[in-house]
Amino acid sequence: MMRANDCFNLDEWLDSLYLGHSDYIFRYSTTMTNPGKKSYKCFLYPRRTKQTDRYAISKSHRSVVTRLSGRTPSEEDFLCNKCRHICKSNMQGSKKGKNKLLTSTSQPSSSTPASSPSVQLPFPSTARGHSSCCICKRPGPKLIVVPVDIRHQVFISKEIIIPAGARCCPNHLQGNIGDLQPISETTTVNRTTIAQLVKFLRSEIQRQEKTRLNFNNDESLSDAEYVDLIGISKDSFKDLLHYIEGKVRLTSTRSLRTSLAIFRMKIRGGESNRVLSTLFNVSQSSIRRCISSVRSALAGKFVLENLGFQHITCSDVIQHHTRQIAQTLFGNSPAGNQAILVLDGTYIYINKSGNFHFQRQSFSLHKGRPLVKPMIIVSTTGHFISVMGPYLARNNDASIIKHIMKSNVEDIRNWVQEEDIFIIDRGFRDSIDYLEELGIQAHMP
């Protein structure tokens, strides 16, 4: 420090300044005179580093640096603190993941040829921007990044690659892809994307080899085979899927479509869980959970919209679900405003119960086996209006219909009007007087 009363000497002050900051002046002059020199960048990871983050390459690290980069470092090259520690870990036999990370992040110089960072594939691709949906081109803001499994499924079904990071509308994630229009005829991808795609295709092939019945692909089974196996067409099957989406837990061996197919085959043919386990290559415990979860999901919205007196009005039954021949044979109103319903009880056979009291009540002397009785109410066109019950086997049809009308199940007494017609069989003969008291006409063969 120079005091105020000392004589100022310019040459001595410049010499002290130069000696104190010689390193800085040398680096600054070198950079200004030769800006292309990489003296400020790490040898392995070419980025500009701070002065405090520069470390000379020791002799023990030179072999590791040469092996990883393919170049021989000079005396003026240096490493950043991160690369220095990675080299040290490589020398100590660290995990292979760190070697791969260093190899992928390091960028060799242009003097040594390296593999291309991207590969061009002859497959069409969509846009990868974040401002609009890559499928329907609708602008944001509520867009979601397309998951990897959805991108892979689109590639299998439509042979179109959705780039990583592309965004789409939330409704497309439920399978509503529609007509996807690509924007380019080729796709440029990196090695990671190709590796993921190959692994996905390999897992799909392995899973398909283990699957006996495949409902995940629409093309695997024809429409006639859908009707033979599960009793409904492909279109009805797709419509039924919307009622259980998000309500059934999916596993690696059982998708949403497979779960619904298992449930439909169970209620259509009554196959045992062991048979279903063999057909779908799913464990019996998973079959039980699948049937229970699908039944609970359909018992909500689907049943309320398609079964019960609340899902249809009396006028709709008269106008759309009543045959003209039924009005001619049984109707006595010129206006034809009478609802004609067909009622009959049916049987659902069950296993013998371990509860002695329920076993006696559910045993049918007529059939000689345990069962329960639901009451079926349909229109003359066969449209199901409602299913009441089930009732115990000791109840006959007459006692069941009396209980339904007296208890006003599903508000049936407000739905049925006076002069409406019930077509019943001789099992209801003990209830005819009660129905006539309510103003209902009963026709019995």
Q: How is this structure best described in words?
A:
- Residues 1-8, 13-39 and 94-116 have low confidence and may be disordered.
- The relative contact order is 0.05.
- The chain is an alpha+beta fold and 445 residues long.
- It contains 19 helices and 13 strands.
- Helix content is 42%, strand content 11%.
- The protein has helices at residues 10-20, 22-33, 59-69, 81-91, 96-105, 148-158, 191-210, 223-230, 234-241, 256-269, 273-280, 284-298, 301-306, 314-320, 324-330, 356-362, 397-407, 412-415, 432-437, and strands at 55-56, 78-79, 119-121, 144-145, 167-168, 187-189, 340-345, 348-349, 363-364, 369-379, 384-392, 421-423, 441-443.
- It has four domains: 34-105, no CATH class; 119-209, no CATH class; 221-305, Cyclin A, domain 1 (Orthogonal Bundle), CATH 1.10.472; 309-443, no CATH class.
- The strands form four sheets. Strands 7, 8, 9, 10, 11, 12 and 13 form a seven-stranded mixed β-sheet that branches.
